[in-house]
Amino acid sequence: MTVHRLHLGEPTLALARRQLLAIAQELHTRGWVANHDGNVTLRLAGEHLLATPTALSKRVLTESDLIVLDAKDRVLQGGRKPFSELKLHRAVYAARPDVRAVVHTHAPNATALAVAGVAVEPRMLAESVVSLGAEIPLLPYAFPQSAEQLAQLKTAALAVDALTLGNHGVLAWGDDLEQAFLRAELVEHLAAIQLRALQLGRVTTLPNADLARLLDARKKAGLGPQARNKG
Question: What phi and psi, each to the nearest 5 degrees, are found at residue 106?
Answer without folding.
Answer: -115, 45
